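Bit of a strange request maybe. I'm writing a small parser for structure token strings and I need a real example to test against, not something I typed by hand. Could someone generate the tokens for this chain?
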Amino acid sequence: MTISSLRIMLIAAAVGAVTFQSAAADDTNKSIDDLLGDHTVYQAAISALQKGVTAHDAAAVAALVRYPISVEVKGKKMAIKSPKDFIAHYDAIMTPEISKAVTDQKYADLMVNSQGIMFGNGQVWINGICKDDACNRFEAKVITIQSAGPE
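Reply from user aminoacidic:
Good idea to test on real output. This should exercise your parser:
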């Protein structure tokens, strides 16, 4: 095998991987559109969540949460009622396990059902929150943050 034929094979494999990822992302978009609504709303929230968690930006992550939210902080259930409360408890809420589930999640591999969009093994869920009675307008928010428990 020549170097140029090897290069051609590597380029073809890379193009195939990109095409597969694109097709899988298209499937995710279709699932979101069919089950939850406009995927672009969810896509923006997912991207913002992953960026916020990666940057350890408590305020950015807090802005994506629906309040009140029930979480576990140091082994105790707690109702977080505001972004200010969330920021104050950020490190206890967004544990390394939960943060990893968010940052490692690939868009094309998201699990989507009528309950929302799941990260990891259920550590974080996002769903639409209606802004009007007919739910013509909605925003995507984090509705669940929890440990997946022992594997």
